[in-house]
Every structure is written in structure tokens, then in C-alpha cells.
Amino acid sequence: MTREIPGFYYDSAKRKYFRIENSKTAPAQAAWSARNVKRRAIEEKEDAQRREKLQRQANSVKRTPVRKVPLMGGLLAREIGEVGGSTVPGAETLGRAWAGGLRAKGGVKLWPQYPDNCGMVSSMWVGGSDELELGIVYGALNEGLWAGAYIPRDADDKISCRHTAERYPGVDFRPRLYTLSDPIITSIKFHDSSGTILLASNDYRGGPICIRQFKGQPQNSGDPSRNLVLEENESVLLFSGRQLHGGPASTIHALQPAPYGSRLTCIAGTDRGIVQLQNQELAWLTPPSDWSPRRFRERTQPWKDRAPWQGDILSVDFLTPNSAEVILAGTRSSHVCVLDLRAPPDEWSAESSALKHASSAAHVRCVGPYTVLAAGPQNAMALYDVRFLQRQQLHQNNPAQWGGRRRWGENCTRPVVEFPSYRNQEHIHIGLDVLTEPGYGSAGIVAAAHGDETVALYSLGDGSRIPVAAVDGIKAHAVVRSLMWQTLPGDRHPSLFVGEGPWIRKYSFWA
Known about the structure:
CATH superfamily of the domain at 244-295 and 308-393 and 406-418: YVTN repeat-like/Quinoprotein amine dehydrogenase
Number of helices: 7
CATH class of the domain at 244-295 and 308-393 and 406-418: Mainly Beta
Strand content: 25-35%
CATH topology of the domain at 244-295 and 308-393 and 406-418: Methylamine Dehydrogenase, Chain H
Strand order of the largest sheet: 3-30-29-28
Helix content: 10-25%
CATH architecture of the domain at 244-295 and 308-393 and 406-418: 7 Propeller
Radius of gyration: 32 Å
Oligomer: single chain
Distance between the termini: 68 Å
Largest sheet: 4 strands, antiparallel
Structural class: mainly beta
């Protein structure tokens, strides 16, 4: 640092002091002449004032609130050539704008005899009839009471019974209750290929699991008085876990119908692995190991040869590119397994077929050709690319501690997108569904229930939360367990259906 000496000028280039000389005797271009020294002092003062003014202006400039509006802000960003930032142009902008326009459109109370705080819808399925443009909903309350009803709507797609008698003469819109011998209902799904409804249940007496296949909604043939909701005496095909060779399973956690072209009817995740329903026969898809729960509790051999897909399977799905042959399984041990049915199970390797999630994989969903969404407790929701499964390595620090075996899930695939605003600290049975139809965001929209009894929407593109006043305002009396995106017959856009208490509420685009 140089010192300022009166009567002298410091030349930073030559790194020396020069005596300031009168302009009449000094050379015309001399830096140490009195005239040039005074001129430079004035210029430096003006530059300092100019920089200070620019700094004050920068601190006073604020972004216009219009940039936070998804549609208008995104279009403005595209016009000025901005990429990224707080707004995302293109398909993501349109998806956020559409989601921001969701409004409450009424609801159906499947159990009118119960108060609103009696419990929560534990599982549901929403569909419809294309011929009458009628919506249909089936739901289970507290895993025990099963009911079905139509979804009457008015001209604004709002659930309303005001004009249903004129629009649908002879149709009974009252909810219909059903009875089952083993009332622990865990999942209700619809199999498109066979047009049947699949219902998974556990025996409250501790017996084997059951998968019921209802013959589904009857064909209407143009008669509006013909009921589409199942009658009490509809024939049921019962597939009991007693048929399983290798021992029965006592708990069924998840059920997923097979897509078109698959030889299977459905797959289900149980406490001992994955079962499959094929040609009206229930069989193990992942044969259970000889692992003993008692020996595991005693911790005598905690890492006995037992693959992740032979334990507690909390969620299952099919992978899109090979939807008939490749399945996904989320385990309680926090693994996401990618299993190719074209290879025998004894050839599957946990090193190349399983990645490690941050928590138990309560939900796994295929959301793209090779992308998988996994969500569970500990606020853990992330998107993975299964094409880049990393091989696991031996535990180098103390191999003898694990008997020389490889540890499942170590050094595995990292998430490509994370969801930092997701809030679910401890719940396994919690609602989640994904909208992946084209035109609703660059990658899709996730509807996820939070542990604080609220619901939120997230973008699959960047993992950020989408502000939606109608959905963000949901405040149930318990954790929401049932969420579903579905486009009802006659609707132009998908709607979000939320199981809140004994109600199935509908949220649709307002226009």
C-alpha cells in the first residue's frame, strides 16, 4: 500500500514517486505535471461517484412480481431470452400454469352415515364409463369398509347432484356398501386388459393374503338404467395366499395391475417378496429364501444370504420401455429393485439390480423411459436413472465384520433430481401419485401428501414445489393416504382426487 506524500505523485507503473512540477516547465505529456495530476484527481472522484450511484440504483431495483406468475413470468422470460432462474420457459411453464389453475370441484361422500372425522380413505380407484360420461369411484375407509358410487357432474365438471335426475334418468347415485369376510383392504386397482377390478386384502385373523378379481363394470349397451357400480352379488374370483408354494405371506402392501401385452394379471408386494397373478393362479415371482424371522430377531446371522426383493416389499410398478417384462420393487430396507422377468430369479444380482434410497421406498413409480421416482419417510423423495446403476463394492474397512459378503446398497446410484420441500418424516402409508401425460409440464407433476396432513404438488423437472392455492389449502384431520390423477369421461383435463375423511374430493382446472 502506497503513502500519499504532499507535493509528490506516485507512478504505479514505474513504482516510484515524482515531484509534482509546474505545468509551464514540465513536459506536456508528463504524468507528474500539476495539470495532469489535477485532471486525474477529478476523473477518479467522478468515477467513484458514478460507481456509488450505480450501486445505489442496483440496491433499489426489485424484480416485478409478475415474474413469479408461472404463465406470464415464463412468457416474459422467453421474450427477453432468459434461461433458468425463478421461471422456467417452455413446457414446464405451461405445466405450472395449468397446475396453478386447479380449483376445488366438490366431492362424493362414500359413507354418508359417518362423520367427517371418523377416519381416512385408505385406498381408492377412480374411473368412468365413456358411454354415459359417468365417473365411478371405489374406496376403502380405514382399510375395512368398502363402498362404490357414481360421480355426478354438472356442465362445469363440478360434482353435483342437482341436475343428475334429468341428465341420467334411472341411475341411483347413492353410495353402495359392500361386505367382506376379511376386511383389511390394502389396495383397489383396475386391470385394463380384462376390465376387472382387483382388490387386495389381508386376513385380520393373521391368515394368508387374498387378491379378489371382480368381473368389473358391466357393459352398458346404451341403457342408462343399467348400473355400472358392482352389485352385491357380483361373482368374485378369489386367489388366496394358501396356494403359494414355499409358504404363504401374511401381509400384502401394494398391488399393481399389469399393462397391455403382459402375460400377468397383476403383481403384489408382500412381507416375503413379490407374488404374481397369472392365468388365475397366484404364485411367487420372487421365491422366498430360507431366512428365519426368529433368527433375524436374535441377530445371530443378520446378513444371511437374502436378496432385497425377498423381504418386505412396500411398492411395485412396471418399467415403461419393457413394461411387460421389467418390474420395479421398493423395499422396507430402502432398496429400489429393477428385476427383469426374462431372466430366472437365481440370476438376479443385487449389485446390478438394486439401488439404495435414502429411506424405506414406500412408493416407486416409473415416470419415464428409464427414470424412477422413489419416496418414503425421512423427507426422502428423489428421481433416479436406472441406466446408470453403479456396482457395489466390498466393505473395505472391516470385511470380516460382514463375513466377507457384499453389503446391499453401498456406493449405489445417486439421484438426478431431489425434492427438498417434501415433508414426510415417518409415514409409510401415505398418498402419492404422478401425472405423466404429455402437455402437463416437461416431465410431469407429483401429487404428494405430507406428514402434517397437507397435500402439495411438485415438478418432476426440477423437484421444486408448485404453488397451488386450492391444493395447498387442504388440511385433513389425519395424514392423507389416497391420491389419484384421473381424467373422467367428458373432461378435457386430468383431475386430482383426494381421499379426505369419508370424502373423495375433486380438484380440476378451472377453465
